[in-house]
Structure to design on (713 residues):
């Protein structure tokens, strides 16, 4: 095999490639959603799929999210593996009843007789200057629904690996795509795509000894930047990328916090009733005797997502993360 | 030249040509519900089919009565009866070929039983020992759907998938009059028509959504008229006339099978019993109305027709009655046995592989059961 130069690829390209590879490998994989066919999706994530696989495999549906997901349920019941695109986080809400009442429950209610191999791709989160209803961090809704797997990539390689894993899964998977990272680049070789890792594993992105930043999706690059900046303050921060919110990798997270003794959870979603509360509780339950300080959260404010000209005040940034790290009771050590 | 100066010479640019995309006339339902029994059309009906419908209707009525009795005895948690609607329930099941799929709502356990599912398995949801008791793929019967109309897009998706695979499969989806107000009804019909999916939608208009009468549900000329807006034919049928329901559904199934796309069928019937055993129908309707409908009873209508044509003798009536009693006795005996319950089942099917979190919780329950007085598996 000739060596292929590893060029920078975007997360968007990796997602497209994942669907293309899955469709080529398995004729039962069908992509469907609004504008996914001729246009290639409003974010162009399905670009070229209709051309390559035909309109029956990559289908422009009527504009109705409950109908899209509801028909996908029926298609999965018949043995297909639908990959549904919801155009934006906040436009996925009409499909919520189908998701909660059927997608999440079908395997359980039929004692495993009717599993639903279904992938639901949802671009989520802010930071792209979107107007109202285009920037919701909606992960807490999905996390609170038993029967769903909920995963979110933060790197180009993970975007490929997690989407392949989602499509291969015999359970429904909600893949939350951080839309502000769609155009983030990384050296990633599309000819030798990353391994398809099992869903449910977190990864340590940066090793450190002082404290652990626990994060995922769109907040990972912010945390990595914060960790760099923290060196000037004398803090050596570890950064854990959850990748999978459900199932939750208690093992990796707890091992990190036991090492560092301090933790801050960082996400865009609101703090009240948000993922951070659950994560902080789990860490505290498992690592209490290793903790030097309460587990803190840096989250979006508990308000409807702000208009684009104000969103920078809402999203967790480096300074807010460093402030939180500063409140981890360092005095006790000195 | 100013706009005012141009005025004399101005000719508006004609808009792009417009014409209706579908001629609505052939899609419109008849003004009156279609009837067979007691009309000239009855002569053409197959006597063998009518006798089969009769037997199934008698069994269905007895099944409804037995399930209601089991509810009163505490053997079922709840039972939404289809008494008075047996013609729709039975015809929906009989009209399908083996490979076809049925998508029932919670009131349609009789259709599920008539399709061949074990009554005890069909009643699992209402007994409460699990949610779906039967294997949907084995019987090609979707789980009973409790959230209204949400099963309709499933039927469309399944039928669409089958057609993509080149399989000869029709899906028949059942919904009530109240369900037609749900968004999923609209979205399912729209998708079905756009995709020309082989689906038949059967609306049993039984007059009430729990307590709310149809007049408060819709201002449409009829529910069948809604089909026209989606570009599919709407058919209106007397839902208590088993021969008519069977014929209309059979036409729709044939049409779907031949690639002609979906049909919406509105069957006019009546919910003779309350919504469920937990409902008090006297709060929203008068007995006189119920009595009027009881005189338009599906079994009596069919019996009169068959007797008049001399194809139903006393022996046949007795045989149907015996079949019904056998069904009821078996159901009674089996439902009076306590179901086997295993609390560990709670964790077994949430995912293909339980998450680490569920494994921890399963061990917690196991420990609780081991520590408690009740042995594991007991009620």
């Amino acid at each position: 095999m000739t060596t292929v130069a590893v060029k920078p690829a975007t997360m968007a390209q990796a997602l497209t490639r994942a669907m293309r590879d899955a469709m080529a490998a398995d004729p039962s994989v069908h992509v469907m959603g609004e504008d996914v066919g001729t246009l290639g999706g409003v974010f162009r994530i399905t670009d070229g799929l209709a051309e390559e696989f035909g309109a029956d495999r990559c289908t422009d549906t009527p504009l109705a999210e409950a109908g899209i997901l509801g028909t996908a349920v029926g298609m999965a019941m018949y043995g297909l593996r639908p990959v549904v695109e919801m155009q934006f986080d906040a436009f996925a809400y009409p499909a919520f009843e189908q998701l909660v009442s059927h997608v999440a429950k079908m395997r359980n209610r039929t004692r495993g007789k009717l599993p639903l191999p279904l992938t639901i791709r949802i671009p989520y989160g802010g930071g792209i200057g979107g107007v109202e209803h285009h920037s919701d961090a909606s992960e807490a809704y999905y996390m609170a629904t038993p029967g769903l797997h909920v995963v979110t990539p933060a790197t180009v390689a993970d975007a490929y690996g997690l989407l392949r894993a989602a499509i291969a899964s015999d359970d429904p998977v909600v893949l939350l795509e951080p839309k502000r990272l769609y155009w983030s680049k990384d050296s990633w070789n599309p000819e030798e795509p990353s391994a398809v890792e099992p869903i449910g594993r977190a990864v340590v992105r940066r090793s450190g000894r002082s404290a652990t930043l626990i994060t995922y999706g769109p907040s990972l690059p912010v945390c990595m930047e914060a960790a760099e900046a923290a060196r000037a303050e004398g803090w050596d921060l570890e950064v854990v990328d959850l990748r999978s919110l459900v199932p939750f990798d208690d093992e990796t997270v707890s091992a990190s916090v036991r090492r560092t003794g301090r933790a801050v959870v960082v996400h865009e979603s609101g703090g009240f009733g948000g993922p951070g509360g659950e994560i902080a509780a789990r860490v505290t339950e498992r690592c209490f005797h290793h903790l030097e300080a309460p587990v803190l959260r840096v989250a979006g404010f508990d308000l409807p997502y702000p208009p684009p000209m104000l969103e920078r005040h809402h999203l967790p940034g480096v300074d807010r993360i460093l402030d939180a790290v500063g409140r981890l009771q360092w005095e006790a050590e000195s | 030249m100013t706009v005012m100066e141009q005025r004399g010479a101005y000719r508006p640019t004609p808009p792009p040509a417009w014409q209706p995309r579908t001629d609505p006339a052939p899609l419109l339902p008849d003004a009156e519900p279609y009837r067979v029994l007691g009309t000239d059309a009855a002569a053409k009906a197959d006597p063998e089919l009518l006798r089969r419908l009769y037997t199934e209707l008698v069994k269905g009525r007895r099944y409804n009565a037995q399930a209601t009795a089991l509810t009163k005895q505490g053997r079922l948690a709840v039972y939404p009866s289809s008494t008075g609607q047996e013609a729709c329930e039975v015809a929906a099941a009989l009209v399908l070929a083996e490979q076809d799929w049925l998508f029932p709502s919670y009131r349609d356990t009789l259709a599920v039983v008539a399709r061949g599912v074990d009554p005890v398995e069909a009643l699992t949801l209402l007994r409460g020992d699990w949610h779906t008791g039967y294997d949907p793929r084995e019987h090609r019967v979707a789980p009973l759907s409790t959230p209204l109309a949400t099963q309709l897009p499933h039927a469309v998706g399944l039928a669409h998938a089958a057609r993509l695979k080149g399989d000869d499969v029709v899906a028949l989806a059942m919904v009530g009059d109240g369900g037609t107000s749900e968004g999923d009804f609209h979205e399912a019909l729209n998708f079905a028509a756009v995709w020309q999916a082989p689906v038949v939608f059967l609306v049993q208009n039984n007059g009430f959504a729990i307590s709310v009468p149809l007049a408060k549900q819709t201002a449409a000329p009829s529910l069948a008229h809604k089909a026209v807006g989606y570009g599919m034919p709407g058919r209106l049928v007397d839902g208590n006339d088993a021969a008519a329901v069977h014929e209309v559904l059979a036409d729709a199934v044939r049409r779907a099978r031949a690639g002609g796309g979906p049909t919406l069928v509105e069957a006019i019937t009546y919910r003779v019993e309350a919504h469920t055993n937990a409902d008090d129908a006297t709060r929203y309707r008068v007995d006189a109305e119920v009595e009027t409908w009881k005189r338009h009873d599906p079994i009596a209508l069919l019996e009169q027709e068959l007797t008049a044509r001399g194809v139903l003798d006393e022996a046949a009536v007795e045989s149907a009655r015996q079949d019904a009693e056998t069904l009821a006795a078996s159901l009674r005996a089996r439902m009076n046995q306590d179901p086997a319950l295993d609390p560990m089942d709670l964790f077994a099917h949430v995912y293909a592989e339980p998450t680490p979190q569920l494994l921890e919780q399963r061990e917690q329950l196991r420990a609780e059961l081991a520590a408690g007085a009740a042995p594991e598996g007991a009620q």
